[in-house]
Design brief:
The chain has 98 residues and is mainly α. It has one domain. The chain is 68% helix and 0% strand. Helix 2 crosses helix 5. The two termini are 24 Å apart.
C-alpha cells in the first residue's frame, strides 16, 4: 500500500467510528472495558477533529496501520452485528471534491 493509497483509505473513515474502533482495538488487545477509556484518554482524541486523527493515523508505521485497520474492521463488524444495523461504508465514486 503506497502512502497515497493509505491516505485515501484514511480519509474515507468518518471520525466517530474511527475513535470507537481505536478504543475497541485497545479492548481487543487487553479485553477490558477500562481499556477503552484509557485508550481514548491516553490518545487525547476525545473531541479532536477528524483531520487530527487522520494525521495521527498517517504517522503510524505500515505494519501498525495494517493491524489497526484490521482491528477497526473487526470491531466495527462486531459492533454492528450487536446493534443489528448495516455498516455505513464510505460512498464510492467521486463526490464533489471538498
Amino acid at each position: 500500500m503506497t502512502k497515497q493509497q493509505r491516505k485515501k483509505a484514511v480519509m474515507n473513515i468518518p471520525a466517530e467510528p474511527m475513535i470507537m474502533a481505536l478504543g475497541a482495538a485497545a479492548i481487543l488487545r487487553d479485553k477490558t472495558y477500562d481499556a477503552l477509556a484509557t485508550a481514548l484518554e491516553q490518545t487525547k482524541w476525545v473531541g479532536k477533529s477528524q483531520k487530527e486523527i487522520q494525521k495521527k493515523l498517517m504517522s503510524t508505521g505500515e505494519k501498525e496501520y495494517a493491524r489497526l485497520m484490521r482491528d477497526v474492521e473487526r470491531t466495527m463488524n462486531a459492533a454492528m452485528k450487536q446493534a443489528k444495523k448495516p455498516i455505513k461504508t464510505a460512498k464510492r465514486g467521486s463526490k464533489k471534491r471538498r
